[in-house]
Structures are given as structure tokens and as C-alpha cells.
Write a structure and sequence with these properties.
- The chain is mostly beta strands.
- It has one domain: Immunoglobulin-like.
- It contains two helices and ten strands.
- Strands 1, 2, 3, 4, 5, 6, 7, 8, 9 and 10 form a ten-stranded mixed sheet that branches.
- The radius of gyration is 17 Å and the shape is globular.
């Protein structure tokens, strides 16, 4: 029996051990000359303790940063975050104009609508989760934002 449990644990993907569930992950297609893209998603945490994402990685980009967009003194600014915190028994929505994962220094070939980018999230407890995030046309952006707001009850 012990061997069966050990074998099952070895077959379970590492992402299954992370405390968060990620839904509705997507990356809007960038304009032709843009040097950055952003990843959006909803992170759900059913655990009794908060979960922190400390960093992320995606191939095809020079730098990946955790950001929050906000208005400061009437100016729109993106502020680098040390971590993204998903509250205990709660969720964190990464969306345009708020928290997001900034994908900086787009390399060629440039991701386009229909592509899928593997994005790895690195958690404070040492666990990792790799998501297969689709690139969507910008026209889909408004529809996705509406869906994310519905998920939050707005």
C-alpha cells in the first residue's frame, strides 16, 4: 500500500500541491511595437492561510515582474510588487488596471493570438505552478474584463 501511495504522489503534477487554483488566465496580444505584455488571471485560495507569489517566469521575455497599476497624483503608474498575496479563503484578481504579471522585453517570434505561453508562478513556500496561458486578441479584452467582474460580483 505504501508503494502505491508513493507511486501516486510521484505521478501527481507539482502544481496540484499549490494551495491556489488559477482560473481564466489570459494574455492580451500586444501591438506590433510593444516591448511588454501582461498576464491576467484569478487566483483562488481555499486554505486557512494566505499564499504569496514571489516571482514568475515565462520563456520569450527578458524580465518578468509582479505589478500593480494604480493612479497616483492623477497619473497612471505601474508599481513593482515584492509579492502577490492571495488571502486565506479568498481570491486575488489580476486584471487590467490592477494587479498583473508584467512580461517585459518581448523576444521574437512575438507571441500572437492563438499562442500559448507557459507561465511559472513561484510561491513563498518554495512550491511552483506552471500555467498554460493563451494569448487572446485585444478585441476579446473587454469581454474577458466583463467576465472577471461578474466572477467578483461587480
Amino acid at each position: 500500500m505504501r508503494k502505491l501511495i508513493l507511486a501516486a504522489a510521484m505521478l501527481t503534477p507539482l502544481s496540484a500541491y499549490a494551495e491556489v487554483k488559477v482560473v481564466d488566465a489570459w494574455i492580451p496580444e500586444a501591438p506590433p511595437n510593444a516591448q511588454a505584455m501582461a498576464a491576467f488571471m484569478v487566483m483562488e485560495n481555499d486554505e486557512d492561510k494566505e499564499v504569496k507569489v514571489l516571482s514568475a517566469f515565462a520563456p520569450g521575455f527578458n524580465t518578468i515582474e509582479l505589478h500593480k497599476s494604480m493612479e497616483v497624483d492623477g497619473m497612471h503608474k505601474m508599481i513593482k510588487q515584492d509579492a502577490l498575496v492571495v488571502p486565506a479563503k479568498g481570491n486575488l484578481t489580476l486584471k487590467p488596471g490592477s494587479y498583473h504579471i508584467m512580461l517585459i522585453g518581448v523576444q521574437d517570434p512575438r507571441p500572437k493570438a492563438g499562442d500559448v505561453i507557459p507561465v511559472r508562478l513561484d510561491f513563498a513556500d518554495g512550491k511552483q505552478m506552471t500555467l498554460q496561458v493563451p494569448v487572446k486578441k485585444r478585441a476579446d479584452m473587454m469581454k474577458r474584463m466583463e467576465n472577471m467582474q461578474k466572477m467578483q460580483g461587480h
